[in-house]
């Protein structure tokens, strides 16, 4: 099938370019018109922000320089105090310093006990009144022997007692040798600091604010009104012992995107032209929509079918093949020409399953189909391939049922993997059985030693009767009981050996209808052998009408032996009166399953162990491989059942597994 003529074929290249070029040029022109104002706005915004940062840095350096000059002057006053200058001269020098810096509101010389030795106030109190933050700064300055600033507090008052004027105290500690002789305290009024240090031209364009460490306002200067929050910058004043931040907020708003009416008019005309071109292009696109949709649909369908690894096969209501994809042709080894239009029987049907094909074909012709099933296909060279088929009704756009659509998967690899997994599980089970027999080898030797010793004793007695030298005939009545006992003990030893041999021998998995009691009798000797070793009482509860189970005998015997052995070993450290292992079975008719419970009275399973109980190579035993319960669960799931565990109400653990009941035995019972 060829594709329909494309848009490029319907419209010659120059004609297409004639329509496309105006659209591209208008779009480019419109983009330039939008980009230029936006770029200019961004550049102006960046320049304003950079200028604000630079001006803020200059103001911060000016304030810090002025305060640094005051700090030098205060250190000189401190040196005068240490040299013994009288308080009157010190006060004169303090007053001269305050005249040069109007932001300074008070200077004091405090003695170690807090009394004022000299002050710029006309009538200072005897003891200085400091805020808690200022007292804390004084203590820090004394301990560190370095000048510090006190944290300003919004609720502090100025010397005149007027609220709203927030002060900042500077403490310079004085030491003569190691002796603390007092400190020089300078008090700044923060609002005056902004009024004196911030130039008028900067204040006309910005709102200047001093903030404390919690971003609370300490002082603010807003000569031109509040800032707009568009251009802001924060700069911390480098003051020892205190956190004060200088924040500037420009009163300028964000620049406009469209600075004049001309740009807006050009953009509006460009948009109108673009709309007209798009309307014309839409008219052409609608006229060619059906053709383009068909072309895309055919291209997508072809690409999808060619890329699938799943075979697709469509059949009509009479069973004739109407469509196949390349994957199906490659799977069965026939070409599309050989298959399309072909009626049953199909060339890829295998002779051994021909009856199955005919039965399914009859169902198809009757209007029913199996949604999912497995079967075998045959290639021309005779190779058989297992396949998994999913089939569903094929409905046309009018809702009519026109046939059947099937998807076919080659499951050769899956079958091979399942076979390898089965062989691997058999090897693991054989290894687990050998490991189990290794663990009970010592108990087996002890168990065999008893019948062998009895056989030796009875045969020795018989030989002694035969070897009498008095010439009297041997009484068979005395000889027969000894030989019968020896024979019974030999059968007992042989039964033990056969149980071990049957348990460890390797064979293929085979499901059959078998009684749970028969499987239990086959390994009862091994279970009781371990139970006697741990002084455990083994008890079974099996209903007389329990149906047969459909299972592999050796796998289930392995599960029973593993679960009973775990239960016996779990009771090794409990009192003797509680060492009882119970195996109980019941039939669940609705689920058509036989449930088996193995309950012990042991130590139970902790939560952290229960989470990893069935994980491979996880074991709580010092010599355990960690594969026993994992193999048990795999064997039960192989039969379509489940293996779970729960706490025993009387202490210990109950393991429960289910097996499918035999259909024949259930029908006979009913």
From TrEMBL:
Region (Disordered): 120-161
Annotated SUPFAM superfamilies: ATPase domain of HSP90 chaperone/DNA topoisomerase II/histidine kinase (SSF55874), Homodimeric domain of signal transducing histidine kinase (SSF47384), PYP-like sensor domain (PAS domain) (SSF55785)
Domain Histidine kinase: 443-663
Gene3D superfamilies assigned: 1.10.287.130, Histidine kinase-like ATPase, C-terminal domain, PAS domain
Reaction catalyzed: ATP + protein L-histidine = ADP + protein N-phospho-L-histidine
The PAC domain, residue ranges: 371-423
Known EC number: 2.7.13.3
Keywords from the UniProt entry: ATP-binding, Kinase, Membrane, Nucleotide-binding, Phosphoprotein, Transferase, Transmembrane, Transmembrane helix, Two-component regulatory system
A Pfam family of this chain: HisKA
Highest taxon listed in the record's lineage: Bacteria
Domain (PAS) ranges: 296-368
Transmembrane segments: 20-38, 257-281
Name the record gives this protein: histidine kinase
């Amino acid at each position: 099938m060829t594709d329909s003529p494309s848009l490029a074929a319907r419209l010659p290249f120059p004609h297409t370019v004639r329509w496309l070029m105006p659209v591209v040029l208008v779009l480019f022109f419109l983009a330039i018109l939008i980009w230029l104002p936006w770029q200019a706005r961004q550049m102006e915004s960046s320049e304003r922000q950079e200028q604000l940062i630079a001006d803020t840095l200059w103001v911060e350096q000016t304030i810090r320089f002025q305060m640094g000059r005051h700090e030098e002057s205060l250190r000189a006053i401190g040196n005068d105090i240490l040299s013994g200058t009288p308080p009157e001269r010190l006060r004169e020098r303090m007053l001269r310093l305050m005249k040069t810096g109007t932001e300074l509101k008070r200077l004091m010389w405090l003695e170690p006990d807090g009394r004022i030795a000299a002050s710029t106030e006309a009538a200072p109190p005897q003891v200085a009144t400091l805020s808690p933050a200022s007292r804390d700064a004084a203590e820090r300055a004394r301990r560190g022997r370095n000048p510090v600033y006190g944290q300003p507090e919004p609720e502090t008052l100025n010397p005149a007692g007027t609220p709203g004027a927030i002060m900042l105290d500077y403490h310079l500690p004085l030491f003569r040798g190691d002796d603390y002789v007092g400190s020089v305290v300078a008090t700044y009024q923060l609002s005056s600091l902004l009024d004196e240090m911030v130039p008028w031209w900067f204040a006309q364009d910005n709102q200047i604010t001093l903030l404390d460490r919690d971003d609370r306002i300490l002082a603010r200067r807003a000569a031109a009104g509040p800032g707009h929050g568009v251009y802001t910058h924060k700069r911390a004043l480098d003051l020892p012992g205190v956190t004060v931040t200088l924040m500037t907020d420009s009163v300028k708003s964000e620049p406009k995107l469209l600075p004049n009416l001309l740009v807006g008019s050009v953009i509006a005309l460009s948009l109108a032209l673009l709309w007209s071109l798009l309307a014309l292009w839409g008219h052409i696109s609608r006229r060619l929509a059906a053709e383009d949709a068909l072309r895309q649909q055919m291209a997508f369908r072809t690409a999808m079918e060619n890329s699938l690894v799943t075979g697709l096969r469509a059949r009509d209501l009479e069973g004739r093949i109407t469509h196949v994809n390349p994957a199906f042709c490659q799977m069965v080894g026939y070409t599309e020409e050989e298959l399309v239009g072909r009626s049953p029987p199909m060339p890829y049907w295998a002779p051994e399953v021909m009856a199955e094909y005919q039965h399914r074909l009859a169902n198809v012709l009757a209007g029913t189909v199996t949604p999912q099933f497995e079967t075998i296909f045959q290639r021309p060279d005779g190779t058989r391939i297992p396949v998994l088929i999913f089939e569903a009704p094929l409905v046309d756009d009018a809702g009519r049922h026109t046939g059947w659509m099937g998807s076919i998967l080659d499951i050769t690899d899956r079958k091979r993997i399942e076979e390898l997994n089965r062989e691997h599980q058999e090897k693991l089970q054989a290894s687990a059985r050998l490991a189990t027999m290794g663990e009970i080898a010592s108990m087996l030797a002890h168990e065999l030693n008893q019948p062998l010793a009895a056989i030796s004793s009875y045969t020795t007695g018989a030989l002694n009767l035969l070897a009498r030298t008095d010439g009297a005939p041997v009484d068979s009545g005395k000889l027969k009981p000894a030989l019968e006992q020896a024979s019974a003990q030999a059968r007992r030893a042989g039964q033990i050996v056969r149980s071990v041999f049957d348990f460890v021998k390797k064979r293929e998995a085979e499901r059959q209808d078998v009684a749970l009691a028969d499987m239990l009798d086959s390994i009862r000797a091994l279970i009781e052998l371990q139970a006697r070793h741990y002084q455990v009482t083994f008890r079974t509860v099996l209903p007389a009408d329990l149906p047969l189970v459909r299972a592999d005998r050796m796998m289930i015997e392995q599960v029973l032996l593993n679960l009973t052995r775990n239960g016996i070993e779990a009771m090794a450290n409990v009192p003797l009166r509680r060492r009882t292992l119970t195996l109980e079975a019941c039939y669940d008719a609705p689920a058509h399953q036989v449930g088996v419970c193995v309950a012990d009275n042991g130590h139970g399973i902790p939560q952290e162990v229960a989470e990893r109980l069935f994980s491979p190579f996880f074991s709580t035993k010092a010599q355990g491989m960690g594969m026993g319960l994992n193999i048990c669960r795999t064997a039960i799931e192989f039969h379509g059942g489940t293996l779970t565990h729960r706490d025993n109400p009387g202490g210990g653990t109950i393991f429960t597994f289910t097996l499918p009941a035999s259909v024949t035995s259930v029908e006979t019972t009913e």
